[in-house]
Design a protein that fits this description.
The protein is 46% helix and 15% strand. It is α/β, with parallel strands linked by helices.
Amino acid sequence: MKIKEPKEFTFESGKRAVLLLHGFTGHTADVRMLGRYLEKQGYTCHAPIYRGHGKPPEELIEATPEQWWADVNDAYNHLSELGYKEIAVVGLSLGGVLGLKLAYSEKIKGVIPMCAPMFFDNEKQLTKGFESFSKEYKQLEGKNSDTIEEEINSLMENSSSMFEQLGELIKEVKAEVDTIYAPAFVVQAEKDEMINTKSATYIYENIEADMKDIKWYEESGHVITLDKEKDKLHEDIFNFLEKLDWED
């Protein structure tokens, strides 16, 4: 069975722009509902797909965090080229890490990291998540169990470099969080079993913004944008964006 590859999206609505960044092994489905919600509130939203994502896992392990960062820059520039001068960034998990990096690399309107790791102490959870993602993908392709097991064993053997580089990215961004002055809204799911939830407190306490807030969501897991409290999350993100000092 051929799997339809997801695509990036741009929902043009108003003069205020929001860059939406998905998580590791995920793609634009992570943030599509949020994008549609914000579009209805008058915000233009753009979500890229990082290299290797939305594709077979063999392609994901060939990609690098350096390429993902380049993809985020391209997405930011895409909004700039469309004429948007003020851009906020909302990122889930890996997208939150990349969003924080953008916040100290460019002049952005505000940053909303959601369930973003700051401690690379979750490699076991990451590799387990990658293994589950790979298995599901191969099952959708219609492969038999023996083939799936053989291919997953090969993937796990060859993925260590990607995870090492991912760890370096997280450490690099953690060391720079205190250089962020953009307004920030830190989002964390209390039932997050993928990352160390102390990450949220670290981000909140170390960001130097005058305007910053943090909120914990009791009923949600790691992919908070698709969980039980997503409607409340959408409203909270919108309310934060409305408080920013937009020019229009």
